[in-house]
Design goal:
Layout: H1 8-21, E1 29-38, E2 43-50, E3 53-62, E4 70-76, H2 80-88
Antiparallel strand pairs: 1-2, 1-4, 2-3
Length: about 90
């Protein structure tokens, strides 16, 4: 969960890295990603991924103060610390 607003361009770069460059090695396989986060302007942004294809797009509406953002990874051999630190690097 994330209380911070996220830099959407940085989030896209992180997704590129996680899905295409596989920093956790071939043992970490990300099959799906689902998320709802807050962008720099306080808007809601949805994150979806299947294998190496993903999208990050606004979904309309304002973020409710105090509402945490959430990103869920589904796969095998997932490195929770690595994923958390990469997402945390997107915080503004």
């Amino acid at each position: 969960m994330f209380a911070e607003r996220l830099d959407v361009e940085r989030l896209k770069n992180v997704m590129d890295e996680l899905l295409w460059e596989r920093p956790g090695g071939n043992d970490m396989e990300i099959l799906r990603v689902k998320g709802l986060v807050c962008d720099a302007d306080g808007g809601r942004v949805v994150l979806q991924a299947v294998w190496e294809t993903y999208e990050v797009r606004p979904v309309g509406g304002d973020w409710e103060p105090g509402q945490p953002g959430k990103v869920v990874f589904i796969g095998s051999g997932l490195d929770r610390e690595l994923l958390g630190s990469r997402l945390a690097s997107c915080a503004l």
